[in-house]
Amino acid sequence: MKANEKIHVKYYCAYTTETKYGDGEIGVTNSAWDIYSNPVDGGFGTVTEALKTICEKNSLEYDPENIVHWAKAIGRFTIMTLVDENNFEASQSEIELWKTGNKRLWNCYLEVYLCVRTERELTAEEAEGWK
């Protein structure tokens, strides 16, 4: 990237589907939250920095192993993790209970769309255009 370019978050959304250990996803897929409920502002120097920030903003641990899909041509990344009924990342003890059928958990898919924007100062003509 050029010095005046930064990575920006175009959009992201999370959706969840209940999953049963050994059986996979069951039930209905729900839209959980999106960029409008948890805004992420600013430009980032790397894709990793942007993805880490989005995960932190949404109380999820960033783990490159959880990136299950990416579409390089459009800058889309899909991060998957297990969450509880409150959309918080499942703890190891919750996962163990889920494996024995004693806890309900949901697959959470966080779809992230990134882009590169050029940042520059306004020209004198652009600055005059507000009048």
Description:
With 131 residues, the protein is α+β, with helices and mostly antiparallel strands. 18% of the residues lie in helices and 41% in strands. It contains 3 helices and 5 strands. The protein has helices at 47-57, 92-99, 124-128; strands at 5-20, 24-34, 67-71, 76-83, 105-118. Strands 2-1-5-4-3 form a 5-stranded antiparallel β-sheet.
Brief synopsis:
This protein is an alpha+beta fold and 131 residues long. The protein has helices spanning 47-57, 92-99, 124-128, and strands spanning 5-20, 24-34, 67-71, 76-83, 105-118. It is built from 3 helices and 5 strands, in the order ββαββαβα.
Number of helices: 3
Low-confidence stretches: none
Physical arrangement of strands within the biggest beta sheet: 2-1-5-4-3
How many whole angstroms does the radius of gyration measure? Answer: 19 Å
Shape estimate: elongated
Largest sheet: 5 strands, antiparallel
Percent of sequence in beta strands: 35-45%
H-E order: EEHEEHEH
**Helix/strand structural class:** alpha+beta
Percentage of helical residues? Answer: 10-25%
Count of DSSP strands: 5
Mean pLDDT: 91
